[in-house]
Amino acid sequence: MEKAIGVIDSGVGGLTVAHELMRQLPKEKIIYLGDTARCPYGPRSKAEVTKFTWEMVDFLQKKNIKMLVIACNTATAFTLNELKEKLDIPVIGVIQPGARAAIKFTINNHVGIIGTEGTIRSRAYTKALKKIKAEIDVNALACPLFVPMVEQGILSGERAKAVVEDSLEPMKNKLIDTLILGCTHYPLLKETIQEAIGNHVTVISSSEETARETSTILEVHQIQNKEEDIPVHEFYTTGELEIFIEIAKSIFIDPKLQMVTIKKAVI
Amino acid sequence: MEKAIGVIDSGVGGLTVAHELMRQLPKEKIIYLGDTARCPYGPRSKAEVTKFTWEMVDFLQKKNIKMLVIACNTATAFTLNELKEKLDIPVIGVIQPGARAAIKFTINNHVGIIGTEGTIRSRAYTKALKKIKAEIDVNALACPLFVPMVEQGILSGERAKAVVEDSLEPMKNKLIDTLILGCTHYPLLKETIQEAIGNHVTVISSSEETARETSTILEVHQIQNKEEDIPVHEFYTTGELEIFIEIAKSIFIDPKLQMVTIKKAVI
Questions:
Q1: Active site (annotated) includes residue B183
Q2: Is B45 annotated as a binding residue?
């Protein structure tokens, strides 16, 4: 049996990464763990996020994964370097792929980033962008209401629109031509965000970009799945199954992507 | 002194890759070699392209490069696997990055590819796409007039428009929502191609995508340039300096990107 790609997230946001992995890499099996019971990670300390992340990694390592995707910006900001160093499988986070896509897309070198308080406070995107291209001007904004809203299943409608418009107000008069959705929950609000920020801004989903780079990493390490069987994905949540399944259904609308089992995990 | 990224091409087409490398990775030094004297590679045999490519690689290896970018689709199709196997530095071609970007962008899974006879005959894009996502439907079309036209400096105007429209005619009634410019010369005709194929089609530049993946590979191997000096790039051509410089000037319009030396190379 071919090994799977392990995906971890603080909750349901990483499902947008899992969805893109399934769409862009349909031959690969995904084993996903969302720590919904302890979501959100955004307001937590580095020590706490690191502890929780290692608990998720230990759970997935018992399932014999060949690669790890940290599908959570907060966990990436706090733990990517440590996980890369200590694990003997390739590890990818969601920050560097989004940063590289922004560098590709921006023409005026003014890039906006929205994320959780933890991600924004860590300045991880700013560092990732400037490490590659120092002249990038970064506008970063924390949007603390987005994750709790998405975790409650509020993805569109008047309430979502009002929260998004209000949150993005400080970003609206900036010069940015590119906006990174620096949280894997945010692609679920992408249309509302695009509308609020305007069509002149390219909105980058770190989920799509992370799936794309996962494809590159699989090739670099020559660990692509070579079997022809259609993979049956495994999804686990530490929280309530019901709401997890409901949100998963709203993301995995393509019936071909529904070959998944969803279970409760104790970590 | 930090090592450079080596870039090889059959002529001036790879300059679009070099330009994107300089734009997306401004801290990296580029050493470029264009085999203009023996361009185009498109109609040549695999044996001949392989021999010429190795001659270019030998020239660049003496300059102590840390990574090799094969910025020519024909050379990638014929030599990527061999170069990856035999060289002890990371090697990237232009085909896989373009294929991965197409998989990310396409919604209806109908992807068009235009390239030289050699690239199209090799079916390298079709193989790269289907290896990752079997359900992608591929429409491939050779456009043998584009490279000689670009090498003569004809990049826009009525003559370019007529040639492009005529060449793309067989692609126009296809279902494609994504078109890969499967030749590094073609981004120089991008606007004319976009106009001819229609705005409903996402046109993918393998040059932009290759630069983006080069950034990923540098990070995977931890070989990013850490010095703060502004790099002075070196460009070499086996052909006439004058026309090479003229085309380079039309690509490197940003004055910050003009810190290059251009010399004649004997390989």
A1: yes
A2: no
Active site residue A183: yes
Residue B185, annotated ligand binder? yes
| CA dist., res. B209 & res. B102, Å (int) | 10
* Segment A221-238, tens digit of pLDDT: 999 998 877 888 999 999
Q: How distant is the alpha carbon of residue A61 from its chain centre?
A: 20
Round to whole Å and give the CA distance between A15 and A257.
12
Q: What is the pLDDT of residue A179?
A: 98
Domains and CATH numbers, chain A: 4-93+208-264 (3.40.50.1860), 95-206 (3.40.50.1860)
* Residues of chain B scoring pLDDT < 70: 1, 254-259
Q: Choosing among A94, A100, A218, which should be mutated to test the B contact, i.e. which has the most B CBs within 10 A? A: A100
Strand, helix or coil for residue A5: strand
Contact residues, chain A to chain B, C-beta under 8 Å: 24-27, 90, 96-97, 100-101, 103-104, 131-135, 208, 211-213, 215-217, 219-220, 224
Cα distance between residue A153 and residue A149, in whole Å: 7
Q: How far apart are CA B54 and CA B70, in angstroms?
A: 11
| pLDDT tier at A39, thresholds 50, 70, 90 | confident
| Mean confidence (pLDDT) of chain A | 92
Q: pLDDT of A173-195, one tens digit each?
A: 899 999 999 998 899 999 999 99
With contact defined as beta carbons under 8 Å apart, do B244 and B237 qualify?
yes
Cβ burial, residue B127 (10 Å; 0-12/13-18/19+)? middle
B15, B65, B67, B72: the active-site residue: B72
